[in-house]
Amino acid sequence: MPLYEYYCPDCKSKFELLVNHKHADDIVCMKCHSEKVRRLLSVFAAPRGNSEDYSFDDSSDGGCGCGGGSCGCH
Predict the structure, then answer these.
(1) What is the rounded average pLDDT of the residues 11-25?
(2) What residues contact 2, with CB distance under 8 A and at least 6 apart?
(3) Measuring CA to CA, which of 10, 32, 53, 60 is 20 to 30 A from 46?
(4) Neighbouring residues of 73: CB distance < 8 A, sequence distance ≥ 6
């Protein structure tokens, strides 16, 4: 389930919830129970730079973990 951030303009509180995407817009404030809750735009991180600096490979054979190089990374 995705983690969503919400803001309540009534009590000015900000909170996060793990919510099924089907119900992501049907949330009430956890503090004041208002239905005017807005979902916020969340930020995420992505690696940048040289691929040697950011290695997500945990395999000992040096493979990329995508099925023998079928992704084109080799």
Answers:
(1) 93
(2) 18, 19, 21, 24
(3) 60
(4) 64, 66
What's the burial of 5, exposed, middle or buried (CB within 10 Å: 0-12/13-18/19+)? Answer: middle
Query: Given a cut of 50, is residue 74 above it in pLDDT?
Result: no
Residue that has been written with the tokens 């040697």 in this structure: 52
For 62, list phi and psi in degrees, rounded to 5: 85, 5
DSSP character at residue 28: -
pLDDT at 20 over 50: yes
Q: Quote the tokens at residue 56.
A: 């997500």
Q: Which residues pair with 71 in a beta bridge?
A: none
